[in-house]
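Sequence in, structure out.
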Amino acid sequence: MINNLFILSRGISNHYTPKNTTAIMRIWETDIEIDNSTLEFKNFTIFNYVFDDVDSEQISYPIVGTPNMVTLKGITKEIADQIKQDFESIMGKVETLIVNCHAGISRSPAVALALNDVYKLNLLDDDEFRCMGRYSSYNKFVYAKITKIWDYLKEEDKKN
């Protein structure tokens, strides 16, 4: 049973030493190479996801002073579904879940809040997500996309 749900930055999670069975959901930017080397010997179950901190599935913009464009990719149905599957695979097997992104202020709080709300974990303080709260800058698009997709998948499961 998951008793602890931590939202951390990548830097802090790299130095976290687990005190019990722990899984970590790591959110990476599309332009960063996935590197779990700092966690290899810490006995984590590690899941990696790649999406940028944007409020749509894809956004492109020009690089000033060049003819080049940058394309950022937001969370997709496939990623949301994978997060759901991964979470369900560790339920009952780990005591602590860490969700981290680069800074731990936007994408990871959105994913953690979605897990907390959908699975009724009651491990996060709602006040931290309100105006001026510690996680008030969580990515609302990521949260809405995940919860909408998971609600849809739940309804589909009921039909089958």
